[in-house]
Amino acid sequence: MALVRFALLYTVISVSILDTSHTKDMAMDAVFPPVIQSGDPGLPTGHLLPLGYQRQPDGPVKEYAQPLTPTEFWERHARDYVPLVYRQAITKAPAFTNWQSDEYIRETYGDLDVLVEKKNEDRAARPQRMPLSEFLRNYRDEDWYVVSLLPDPMRAEMQVPRSLLCGTFKKNILESNLWLSAGGTKSLLHYDADHNLHCLISGRKDFIMIDPKYDEKLYMADKKQFSGSSYSHLDMDRVDLLANPQVSEVPWTWATLLSGDCIFIPSGYFHQVRSYGRSVAATIMWSPLNTFDDSDCTTADIDKYTALSDVPLQWTYKKGDKFIDMGFMNVEVVRGALLSLMERENSTKLTEELFALYYELAVVNEDDDREMTEEDAEIISKMFGVLDKDKVGYLTRQELEDLDIEVLKDVARLVDDPHGPVTEDDDMHEEL
């Protein structure tokens, strides 16, 4: 599938603020799933009500009292893209206790930059970059929330559930994201390119989960080039069933997370999220590959406590970095695909012509009725120019195998703009 072969940028879907006043609703007692009641007999059930009021859910997402082994997780859920919930899966993490306090986060990590967003009808608006201390001083009075790479120092306090501690999962973790808000937030109904284990540290989150096979009934936006994600145009607070009667036909399941719980959201799976109370979460994202190699699982100690700082991630952020890189491709998949193409074409050299063939297969052919354009040719030339750092016109197989992952990241950055300001010279304190 396309997302597996070329897991390009997933778009972080902006979270909308439910309460647009400066006073945040910190209550955590909302009724969910909602109670379905008959309304005007002349109108469909749930007309102009929030998503979820249009029909009863099919039931809760499958729950486990403790995380599965990696092989069990693959066989029961990840292979077939089936969501699950783990109860109290990260309670041993220092973050589970320490991050309940804004003061602790401010004093320990306040000098680290994060990306900050707010509700804005202009979905092309970019997030702003600011120190975590500045965000914490203002977020209870502003419609702000953090969705950003989890800074490297904070990874040491976050636990990795054992389901990801060997095999293909551990080798393909792309990034970890920090979510922080004063509550009262909601997302659009959307899906992401990568598998996602979303773990809640503080607050409450309610999830509506919908199988991707119902996409034609959900008024989806056109997927942007290079993006493995998309979202629904439906108004999450007022679903118009006269304009979109098919929404009532869409089955859904549900989950409520409390502090310490995690939910597995498969690549491509629709989900809509509402948060209550001060909300802190960390997510672990990894590539949705077609096979699972468990050859190292027999020797891995998956029951030993493992911090997120102890596993390799492709995309990270530390203080002073120019970029906060969110949602970029799995560059090792790109390296592997290029090596496979060289073998298939019986070529000992990766030339720009051969790279263009890869680009055509992985990018252009994913869009129906699309052909190579001059813009594609320019992108190919720039990308290959980064790969061919010695400017000899080709890379040998050995050179491609040994190529620094940072060079591959520079190639990825040419595909799309960063998710926020990239230098400290940018106006990071522009009004949100």
Task: Explain what the structure shows.
The chain is an alpha+beta fold. 23% of the residues lie in helices and 21% in strands. It is built from twelve helices and 17 strands.
Short description:
This protein has 432 residues and is an alpha+beta fold. Helices cover 23% and strands 21% of the residues.
What's the β-strand tally?
Answer: 17
Low-confidence stretches: 1-23, 424-432
Rg, Cα atoms, Å: 22 Å
Mean pLDDT: 88
Keywords:
432 residues, alpha+beta, 13-stranded mixed beta sheet, two-stranded antiparallel ribbon, 12 helices, 23% helix, 21% strand, globular, disordered N terminus, disordered C terminus
Describe the protein's topology.
Layout: H1 2-5, E1 15-17, E2 59-60, E3 63-64, H2 70-78, E4 84-86, H3 94-98, H4 102-109, E5 113-118, E6 128-131, H5 132-138, E7 144-149, H6 152-155, H7 167-171, E8 173-181, E9 185-187, E10 190-191, E11 195-210, E12 230-231, E13 253-258, E14 262-265, E15 270-286, H8 331-344, E16 349-351, H9 352-362, H10 374-387, E17 394-396, H11 397-402, H12 405-415
Helix pairs in contact: 8-12, 9-10, 10-12
